[in-house]
Write a structure and sequence with these properties.
By secondary structure, the chain is mostly helical. It is built from 15 helices and no strands. The two termini are 27 Å apart.
């Protein structure tokens, strides 16, 4: 008994789930309204963003497409697409997953549900006003901060309610160990207001002078992905993989190293995109070094996930949640290593100002984060509505459409971007020729947009069916194939 107590004290990942089934049911019931509201709004914006992105992609090869209407020009459609996907889909899906995870991991029913519902309504009002403002021509032309100034206070007020809720939940959690996923979630909830407020102050309300604005912009754009969306995605992976498999995460100590290395190095990222610009050498050098050192948290997280999965990869054949989550985890490793390589000046010289950077961004935001959110939603929603997903076949279609679409898009942009960059680097090649090199790959990108839109329509159809409980009531979860063993923690 004494040795077991010592083991659990130094290795919290070995502590079994202490919640009884009726306690989990009570927690899930308390989260039902706010979480489903966040999920429902995120699915709506996902469809809107997919349509806008498809139009923007085809405008790259057909500039005259829908050019008779000013609000559908590329200069408005593209930032509208980006902000809808980021603030409409990714933020709300991430917050919904984070709410459920925090309640489960704090082991208490959701507190202040009405506050969260109000925050959801205000957040969507801010996104709607902001996107309409961009389409009307009020974009602020600062990447990831294009939403007009009159939408920003609404978003900040909505997030303030969510952030306060997260701190309250953590404060009143049941006594016991703080799990790995809780580290990432609490850090993300504290990091985002710092990032968002700092960027708005230095770029919008009291703008810094000259080229310093570029440094602040890239710092914000990179860190929103790295210190807000990435922690939520990793928190989901650290919860879902052990839950589906019914076994603890491989190493608590690797989790500790990965978390603190991410916190230490990612905040310096972003400015390696400004190599060659009018910036102090120490600033660029520090960002390059930090980007290279990001290999530490990336490799530790990858090893931890792989060793947890070791001997259980057959679960990918039957678990929808695990298949989406593992795809997202693999994408996280690839996109992070790709980011480390892009910080090397010799490669950055070629890939800068090309489609290669666009492909890198899509792999991070969609290949990693969105796939993680899909996997989490497939796990969470049945526990909230008391109904199983109506069709494993439709889930399979969603996975293959999404996976094929993002791989096709990223592959086309990566290869096309490299050829484009090599052409730009060659003084004997004209600028027009460099664009011609990328054109066939942009066609492929447009085709991949149709695949992604089709996958999202399937996902939205499934989600509506779940909310309305359409179809025959299933006696068990919707699995791709029958599993040989069933994890007790499910």
């Amino acid at each position: 008994m004494k040795s077991q107590s010592l083991l659990t004290s130094i290795h919290p990942a070995t502590v079994p789930d202490s919640l009884a089934s009726h306690e989990r049911a009570e927690i899930d019931a308390s989260t039902r309204g706010p979480v489903l509201l966040f999920f429902g709004c995120s699915v709506f914006w996902l469809l809107v963003g997919s349509l806008l992105g498809l139009v923007a992609a085809w405008k790259m090869t057909h500039p005259g497409l829908l050019d008779s209407m000013a609000w559908l020009t590329f200069g408005r459609i593209r930032p509208a697409h980006l902000n809808v996907v980021v603030y409409g889909w990714a933020f709300q899906a991430g917050i919904g997953v984070a709410l459920w995870l925090m309640a489960r991991l704090c082991r208490i029913p959701l507190l202040h549900a009405k506050l969260l519902v109000s925050a959801t309504l205000f957040w969507n009002l801010g996104v709607l006003i902001g996107v309409l403002g961009i389409l009307a021509g009020d974009s602020r032309s600062v990447e990831w901060l294009e939403l007009p100034g009159y939408a920003t206070p609404i978003l900040f007020l909505a997030y303030a309610c969510i952030g306060v809720w997260a701190v309250i939940m953590f404060r009143y959690r049941r006594p016991g160990h703080v799990y790995v996923s809780q580290w990432y979630l609490l850090a993300a909830f504290l990091w985002f207001p710092w990032l968002y407020a700092t960027a708005n102050i230095l770029l919008i309300w009291q703008p810094v002078q000259g080229s310093a604005q570029g440094a602040v912009n890239w710092w914000f754009a990179r860190n929103v992905l790295g210190l807000w969306l990435t922690p939520i995605g990793l928190a989901s992976a650290f919860y879902m993989i052990p839950k589906v498999l019914g076994r603890p995460i491989h190493s608590y100590y690797l989790s500790l190293l990965g978390f603190w290395a991410l916190a230490l190095f990612y905040s310096w990222n972003g400015m390696h995109h400004l190599i060659g610009g009018p910036f102090p050498a120490w600033m660029i050098s520090a960002s390059v070094v930090a980007s290279i050192l990001m290999i530490i948290p990336v490799i530790t997280v990858a090893i931890n996930h792989h060793m947890t999965m070791k001997g259980h990869f057959e679960a990918l054949k039957w678990s929808p949640t695990l298949r989406f989550t593992v795809f997202g985890a693999m994408a996280y490793t690839v996109v992070s290593l790709q980011g480390c390589l892009m910080a090397i000046p010799s490669l950055n010289t070629i890939t800068h100002f090309t489609d290669y950077t666009i492909g890198h961004a899509h792999l991070g935001l969609y290949g990693f984060f969105s796939m993680m959110m899909f996997g989490a939603i497939y796990y969470i929603v049945p526990r909230l509505v008391g109904w199983e997903w109506p069709s494993a076949t439709m889930i399979r279609w969603h996975f293959w459409l999404a996976a094929t679409g993002v791989l096709l898009m990223v592959g086309a942009l990566t290869i096309g971007g490299l050829l484009q960059g090599l052409a730009l680097y060659d003084p004997k090649v004209s600028f027009q020729s460099s664009l011609d090199f990328a054109t066939p790959f942009r066609w492929v990108r447009g085709i991949s947009g149709f695949l992604l839109l089709a996958g999202h329509l399937v996902f939205a159809c499934l989600f509506v069916q779940m909310l309305l409980k359409i179809g025959h009531r299933r006696t068990g979860p919707a699995l791709f194939t029958e599993s040989k063993t069933e994890a007790a923690s499910l």
